[in-house]
UniProtKB/TrEMBL annotation:
PROSITE patterns: VOC. Signal peptide: none annotated. Residues 22-136, 150-265 form the VOC domain. Pfam families: Glyoxalase_6 (PF18029). This is VOC family protein.
Length: 267
């Protein structure tokens, strides 16, 4: 992680349509929707309301009445990895999905309409990391950022950055800013000169059971207290809290195994 600031205005609002390539939403597909709601409700203070049902039962998570994330229920017979998936904004989801396909990616779902909310697709890059594409209509995406309980950064953990960064640059039009370091393989993706996501090449230290994957960071008020809560609520602490240049960071998993990071920004 080299930069952890969302697209929020001074009061944390983000109502404007996102520029293409900007992370605009995160969603999670699980087997136990009710127990997952209980976990994140207790951890982040989220409340829930029903969302578009195109892909089965789902809810939108709200914080202070504003949408921050989506959670859906997997069909019982579908054995997919339980993981948070970031969605990147697009002005034309069909064109973006086709570009991803032409660049060696795979489109697994869609493009399809999500009621009046917008149009979406779920794809994977050439290394297999899954991401979403969102063309907002009534629903432009996360309506609140920069406060505890909201997504603040998305980072791709992969084998090496050079080839996969070219994929995302072509599909979404990112500008790249590599970290110049002999032992740290990291590229920050920019939209309009602003950092929006990162790609971290971790080589053989990538978890064997997961492969390349996107990792979402959520803002928290107190990282250490959050880790205690995660454990009490039935989750797991995967990487204990540590201080970084951008705040106190830790990585955890929810009760179904969905991995995410939390960050306490420096004050």
């Amino acid at each position: 992680m080299t930069e952890v600031r969302g697209a929020a205005g001074p009061n944390g609002d983000t109502h404007a349509r996102r520029a293409p390539g900007t992370p605009c939403w995160v969603s999670l597909m699980v087997h136990g929707l009710t127990t997952t709601e209980e976990f994140y409700g207790a951890l982040f203070g989220w409340e829930f309301q029903p969302g578009p049902q195109q892909l089965g039962p789902c809810v939108r998570a709200l914080l202070d009445g504003r949408e921050v994330a989506g959670i859906g229920q997997l069909p019982p017979d579908l054995q997919l990895p339980i993981a948070w998936t970031p969605y990147f904004a697009s002005d034309d989801v069909d064109l973006t999905a086709e570009t991803a396909r032409l660049c060696g990616g795979t489109v697994g779902v869609g493009p399809l309409d999500a009621a009046e909310a917008g149009r979406m697709a779920i794809a994977s890059d050439p290394s297999g990391a899954v991401f979403g594409i969102w063309q907002g209509s009534a629903h432009l995406g996360t309506a609140l950022t920069g406060v505890p309980g909201t997504p603040v950064w998305d980072e791709l953990l992969t084998f090496e950055t050079s080839s996969v960064a070219k994929f995302y640059e072509t599909v979404f039009g990112y500008e790249e800013e590599p970290v110049v370091s002999a032992d740290f393989d990291y590229v920050t993706l920019h939209v309009g000169g602003r950092p929006v996501a990162g790609i971290h090449g971790v080589g053989l230290s990538l978890p064997r059971d997961r492969g390349p994957h996107w990792l979402t960071y959520f803002e928290v008020a107190d990282a250490d207290a959050t880790l205690r809560e995660v454990a009490e609520l039935g989750g797991q602490v995967l990487k204990p809290a540590r201080d970084s240049a951008h705040g106190r960071v830790a990585t955890v998993a929810d009760p179904e195994g969905a991995v995410f990071s939390v960050i306490q920004s420096p004050h």
